[in-house]
Every structure is written in C-alpha cells, then in structure tokens.
Specification:
Order of helices and strands: HEHEHEHEHEHEHHEHEHHEHHEH
Largest sheet: 6 strands, mixed
Shape: globular
Bound molecules: pyridoxal-5'-phosphate
CATH topology of the largest domain: Rossmann fold
Length: 357
C-alpha cells in the first residue's frame, strides 16, 4: 500500500472529513488509517427549491454524500472499518449489500491490500454499484431473494466459523457507525449551530443511529447546546419502521417482500432497528414513508432545480420534507438538513428508465 502522510497536523489542516475528528473516534493512536480522504462533503442550501415553494423553509440544506470517493456515505464508515480489519491481519472483508456497501468495501479493501467478498441480492443492485464492486476487484456472489437473504447468509457463515479469516463489515459493525457519525460533526461545524431537523433515508438503519450518536456526543462534550430531531425516512412498500411508528408499535413490522425503486433501501428486516427507534424516540423525531412517485419527483427536483444528482434512496429525504411540511410537522422557521446518501450515477436505470430524462 502506498505510504500516506497521516500526521495529526495534516488531518487537522483539512477543513472537514472523517479523520479530522480522530480525537472523537475511540481508536488506538498507532492505527494507520486506510483512507481515500472521505467526508468533507458539500452542505448545499437549496434556495431555488425554496423560491419555487417546493420546500417550506428557507433554511433547508442538502448534505451531499454522493461526493464521497465511491459516491456514497458508506465511505465514512468503511475507512474506519477497513482500518480495523487491516490492523487485525485478516485475509479480507465480507459484506452483504444492496450495492453501495459493496462498492465502498471493495475500494477500501483494494487500498488496504485485502480481499473483498460481497453477497448481493440477484437483480436487486443498481448497475453502477455492481460495476464499482467488480472494478475494485471484489469477489461477487449473487443470491436469490432480497438483501435480507444475503445478510442472513453472511451472518450464518461468519457465526458458523466458515469465514474466520474474513472481517464482517455490515452496519452492525460498530466501527462503521463510528465513521458515519462524523457527518453530524461536519454539519454542526459548517452551520455553526445544530439543525432543528435531520432527515435520513433508512434501510438497514445504521446511518440514522450513527448520525444521532454523533450529535449526542457533541452535546455531551459541550460542543453543542441542543440536539436535533431525527426523522427516519423509508419507502412505502419497504417501511418496517415507518409502519410500526404509524401504528404506535415499539417493534418493526417486518416486510418479507420489500419493493421500491430505491433499491439501496429495499430492506424488510433492518438489523439496526432498535438503535434507530431509540434515536428517533430520544430525539423526539419521527419515521415517515414516501411512495415511489414522490421519490422520483424529489430526485428530478433536486437535479433540475439545484443541480444535485442523487440516487432514488437519497431523494427520499426531500420527498419526506415535502410530505410532512404539508402536514405542518416541519415549519417555516426550522433549520433542516436533508441527508442525500448516494450519487445519481450509481443508478443510471433510475435516471434513464423511470425518470424519462
Ligand atoms: C444510498 C443509500 N441510502 C440509504 C441507505 C440506508 O442506510 P442504512 O442501511 O444505514 O439505513 C443506503 C444503504 O445501503 C444507501 O446505499
């Protein structure tokens, strides 16, 4: 692996980015990061959408995670997860994925000189993500069924000891969540204050839990004077948490056959469901779901009015804001951050086929 200058001074000199916050990551000092300079993504005020009355508050920002090295927020967690894997001297890493985790794991494993095994739901992964995984040299296995089937297979193999030399990197891995929490740090540093609402697309429910952890840490260390409300957004026919929330239940209503154009969040049994529910409850936020029509409208609006190209699983946060603003749940005076998790190029079929550009 190429030598990386990773002195503290260099890390701190970066304006934002995952390793800038190394002091807030519970890692041994002697670890050498496997990094592609992830994080430090744009926080963009969507003024055109406000002027056109698409959003109801002038203080609406998009945190564009598509600007990460492999085009999604997964890189924030993968840099930490693969750093740990490398330090454990394993042969490789293994993930089940709806696509972005595979692309990211493959790239960081390549940089670390590790093998990368990925298990994907056959026909359920956007072509850009599959191409990335292959480009970076991942060994790909496709399974009949959904992401949940793929994850079950990985968990069984890991627990059964068949993968002793492979480090599992799905989002139940706490190191990934440590990296992902840095999004909260960047948002607060850049805005100079804590937003009122943070809307996050939810699939396996790791990211919303990680971001909430980040905000809570800032608050408990005295770097922030309040906490935001976390809003978890799911697609209507793949909404185990939003459905439970609407019914007032404490446990998810698992979905056996999740369906949505937003393939990245086509997940019926989120492993991090309890953490995500806690995040939403503690923050006095809520879960909400949006349908595929709203998702595609939001994707088109971000692209055409603001020049921000996101994949369908990312536009759910704007779709949700539009829906709940109509119900008065987020008001004109609120400071709102929409987390846009992945780049439009990930899913060309969604752009060309469904969007009719
Ligand atoms: C683009 C995109 N958005 C959202 C998610 C959901 O994140 P999480 O599984 O952490 O809830 C994923 C996960 O694959 C994703 O790739």
């Amino acid at each position: 692996m190429e030598e990386v200058d990773f002195s503290w001074e260099r890390a701190k000199a970066r304006r934002f980015g995952v390793w800038r916050y190394r002091e807030l990551l519970p890692l041994r000092d002697d670890l050498r990061p496997v990094t592609l300079s992830e994080g430090g993504t744009p926080l963009i005020k969507v003024s055109n959408l406000y002027e056109k009355r698409v959003v109801n508050t002038p203080n609406t920002y998009v945190k564009f995670e598509g600007a990460n090295p492999t085009g999604s927020f997964k890189d924030r967690g993968m840099t930490v997860g693969v750093t740990i894997a490398k330090s454990l001297s394993v042969d490789g890493v293994v993930v089940a994925s709806t696509g972005n985790t595979a692309a990211s794991a493959a790239a960081y494993a390549a940089r670390a000189g590790l093998r990368c095994l990925v298990v994907l739901p056959k026909g359920g992964v956007a072509i850009g993500k599959l191409a990335q995984a292959l480009l970076h040299g991942a060994e790909v296995r496709e399974v009949e069924g959904t992401f949940d089937t793929a994850l079950e297979l990985v968990l069984e193999s890991v627990m059964g000891g068949e993968m002793e030399r492979f480090y599992p990197l799905n989002s139940y891995n706490p190191w990934r969540l440590e990296g992902q929490k840095t999004l909260a740090f960047e948002v607060v540093e850049e805005l100079g204050e804590v937003p009122d609402f943070v809307l996050v697309p939810v699939g396996n429910a790791g990211n919303i839990s990680a971001i909430w952890k980040g905000f809570k840490e800032l608050y408990s260390f005295g770097y922030a004077d309040k906490l935001p409300r976390m809003v978890g957004v799911q697609a209507e026919a793949a909404a185990p948490l939003a459905k439970a929330w609407a019914l007032g239940l404490k446990k998810p209503v698992f979905v056996d056959d999740p369906r949505t154009i937003a393939s990245a969040i086509r997940i019926g049994r989120p492993v991090n469901w309890s953490k995500a529910m806690r995040a939403v409850e503690e923050s006095k936020g809520f879960f909400v779901s949006v349908d595929d029509g709203e998702i595609l409208d939001a994707m088109r609006l971000l692209a055409r009015e603001e020049g921000i190209g996101v994949e369908p699983a990312s536009s759910v946060s704007l779709a949700a804001l539009r829906r709940v603003a109509g119900e008065g749940r987020i008001g004109k005076g609120d400071l709102v951050v929409l987390v846009a998790t992945g780049h439009a190029l990930k899913d060309p079929d969604a752009m060309m086929g469904k969007l009719k550009v």
